[in-house]
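We now fix the convention by which a protein and its fold are recorded. These numbers are not coordinates but entries in a learned vocabulary of local backbone shapes. A record is reproduced here so that you can trace the correspondence yourselves:
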Amino acid sequence: MMIVIGLTGGIGMGKSAAASILERRGLPVIDTDELARELVEPGQPALEEIRVAFGDSIIEPGGHLRRDELAKIVFADASKREQLEAILHPRIRERWMREVDRLREQGREAAVVVIPLLFETGAQSSFTNIICTACSETTQRSRLEARGWSAQAISQRMQSQLPINEKMTRSHFVVWTEASLEVHEQQLERIRQTLSLKANRDG
């Protein structure tokens, strides 16, 4: 039976780094953020639904989504965020589940799905094991500020997700990402060994 690993955590808490490390060890990684971006490309039905729901002002002249403008709307109003999630989340889930099925048919040993809102969307039953990346709120805010985020934007994003302590409690494994990337990698290697997954490094 293929092991399906859900990789989650708070925003800015090291999910992308963990995904890269696991991918270098030969585990196929499905990134739901990438799937979400594909769903809102020009010509996609989801983009048209979003335009109808939120207005033409969130669409650039070339037909692309104004992500920053949409984010300002949905993270300032929980009902608007729920409206957007109702459009995107079922489509995202259908796509990553289809990809997991494809990997299972190929006989893969394991697969990783990066899903920030894993618990929030009730997806936990789809995973054999769940890994949560976590760090202190101080470090989280510092990382997001380094990306150019305002204090208001950071607070809005954090409030839209479950508290990290709850995510940690509900996960099978926690990777604490305060230290160096090497320590981050060592923690993931111990998880790999615990799950008896074959090592497959890229050198």
About this structure: The CA atoms of residues 68 and 94 lie 25 Å apart.
